[in-house]
Design brief:
By secondary structure, the protein is an alpha/beta fold. The protein has 14 helices and 26 strands. The chain has a 7-stranded mixed beta sheet. A 6-stranded parallel beta sheet has the order 1-11-4-3-15-26.
């Protein structure tokens, strides 16, 4: 029974983007007077700081800088707070044809389906909500001030982090990890320590998501302007007598009608343009502005301002592999709450679903779904973006209605590796700032990454076979059959070997997915200095995950938010020296 159900589910179940889009609607940002649409923005304006990218680091940075300065925050997407159902968000993201879509989907050159946030709050609007700090070793290696790091984490945690209620499936996963040897039991903690723990979440006790956009409620209203649907096309530079490097003095952004707006820095040596557009957006914008590898820029007809060969290099994404565990009993909805941090460098997490988004109808054409970690996504993820329409979503739902509902009952156990060691690069596809760049992550190129994945898969096998998890597995289902069925899920566009037995190494490489933890492309020491100032120019910084060589902790959003606050405090202190 279990094998047959799992194989039915394999026709439609796949993981493409981990998200349940449920937002807190109290005190909505749209009621704050400093938020406006790009079409309503002036054609020319002046600020002390121009922050490009209203995402996970940009929002806390802008809120902090606004305490004593005039700050403009430019975001290419819209508000995360909308009075609509989860399904409408989900359909919008899959269709990917509207600026209102909170996610811009793309396929990496590796053949892995990905998504890039396009919404105020960035990836915190689309992820699984798990919150955990970087390790102490990571903080020391980064050269950060440990005391300021801790106070910045606490600032973030007071604003939007909660202790989760742990449902039975997650509790069973925790106990199974301990039984499988991922010890000790560290209980509830934000800290990154070896063993099994319960982490924080940005979902409150009523199930509503909170996002980085919430930080803007703590901004000084007179110190901040937020402009939505503003696509920055380039950074403006000029040369000054006696200054050896080009100086950033503003940006150009385009509104949805194609009208160009210019924003200039106010006079003063400490005013700056700051990129917080993420691991894909920040390297892309540097290259569009003439800062990047000379030959590549010239091939696109871009005038080279600074030949900087390391822009766009060292881009990485922690590969994720998952296995779907069919359950003989109903399983409640839960996102990541428990994590096993192994000594071998793999991290084990899990998500469970209330029958994983089986389509239902209440007369209002509604689909229950598990966000973008759902059966519908599995079908649509392999379609070209223009074909991901609401009609295609409906066809996927109709196909699922014909399957045994028990096929959708269960949960995914996920494995992500530390690092990774493997990395790739970003290149421009065109000079259109609205287009995604070409991204190559080189998943599992290095043997060390494969070995960590294999050890993570072996840990998952022990979890599945544990007594603690036995209530959520079929007695007649073998571990081999469970992994074989999961290997048939259409999770990427890579070629498959159609054999019934796969080595763990083959499973890792063939079922690789993104966990949306992109980083690199503007590394500290290569593109920016230890204060995140871009080499070769003045008045420009990059403060986001593109500066990371490795992903912090098991899930990076806590550290990216912390970095926004951390650098905001430091930049303010520099201003008043």
């Amino acid at each position: 029974m279990a094998v047959g159900l799992a194989r039915s589910a394999a026709l439609v179940l796949a993981a493409a983007v981990l998200c349940v889009v449920a937002f807190s609607e109290d005190e909505q940002l749209e009621n704050l007077r400093f938020v406006q649409h790009a079409q309503d923005a002036p054609l020319v304006s002046h600020f002390n700081y121009i922050v490009v990218g209203g995402g996970t680091s940009g929002c806390p940075l802008a809120a902090t800088l606004s305490e004593h300065s005039r700050v403009l925050l430019l975001e290419r997407g819209g508000l995360p707070y909308r009075n609509m159902s989860n399904q409408e968000h989900f359909t919008d993201a899959l269709a990917d044809t509207s600026l209102a879509s909170p996610a811009q989907r793309f396929i990496s050159e590796d053949g892995v389906v990905n998504a890039r946030a396009r919404v105020l709050g960035g990836g915190s609007c689309l992820n699984a909500g798990f919150y955990t700090r970087a390790s102490n070793e990571y903080v020391r290696t980064a050269g950060w001030d440990a005391r300021l790091v801790n106070s910045s984490y606490r600032w973030v945690e007071r604003a939007l982090v909660f202790r989760p209620d742990v449902p039975p499936w997650q509790a069973a996963l925790r106990d199974a990890l301990l039984e499988a040897g991922v010890t000790p039991d560290n209980g509830f903690t934000f800290d990154h320590v070896t063993g099994t723990k319960i982490g924080g979440t940005i979902f409150d006790n009523s199930g509503q998501r909170h996002t980085a956009a919430d930080f803007l409620r703590h901004a000084r209203p007179r110190g901040l302007n937020v402009v939505l649907y503003a696509t920055v096309s380039r950074i403006l530079f000029r040369t000054q007598e006696g200054v050896p490097y080009p100086v950033a003095y503003g940006v150009v952004f385009v509104d949805p009608l194609g009208v160009q707006h210019r924003v200039y820095l106010r006079d003063g040596p400490k005013n700056e343009v700051i990129l917080t557009a993420g691991a894909l957006g920040s390297p892309q914008l540097l290259m569009l502005s003439g800062v990047g590898p000379q030959a590549h820029l010239e091939a696109h007809g871009i005038q080279v301002l600074v030949d900087q060969p390391m822009v766009g290099q060292g881009v990485a994404d922690n590969p994720m592999n998952s296995v779907f565990i069919p359950s003989p009993v109903p399983v409640g909805l839960s996102l990541v709450q428990v994590v096993g941090i192994t000594k071998s460098g793999s991290f084990i997490e899990g998500v469970s679903g209330s029958e994983f988004g089986i389509p239902v109808s209440d007369g209002a054409r509604r689909l229950a779904n598990f966000g973008l970690f759902s059966p519908q996504t599995g079908q649509l993820g392999t379609l070209p973006p223009r074909q991901r329409t609401p009609e295609a979503l409906q066809r996927a739902a109709e196909a699922m209605r014909r399957l045994d509902r028990r096929a959708f009952r269960g949960g995914f156990i996920l494995e992500k590796i530390l690092g990774p060691v493997s990395s790739g690069h970003i290149e421009l596809r065109s000079t259109d700032p609205r287009a995604n760049p070409a991204v190559t992550f080189n998943y599992f190129q290095e043997a060390e990454d494969v070995e960590r994945c294999v050890q993570g898969i072996q840990t998952i096998e022990r979890v599945i076979q544990s007594r603690a998890f036995s209530n959520y597995t079929y007695a007649n289902a073998s571990v081999e059959s469970i992994f074989t069925d999961s290997a048939n899920f259409p999770v990427n566009l890579l070629p498959r070997h159609l054999n019934d037995s796969r080595s763990p190494e083959q499973y890792c490489k063939e079922t690789v997915m993104t966990i949306w933890h992109y980083h690199g492309g503007c590394h500290v020491g290569a593109v920016v200095d230890d204060q995140y100032r871009v080499f070769g120019v003045q008045g420009l910084r990059v403060i986001d995950s593109s500066t990371f060589r490795y992903s912090p902790g098991t899930n990076p959003q806590a550290t990216v938010m912390m970095l926004g606050r951390y650098m905001g405090v430091k930049i303010q202190a520099e201003r008043w020296k």
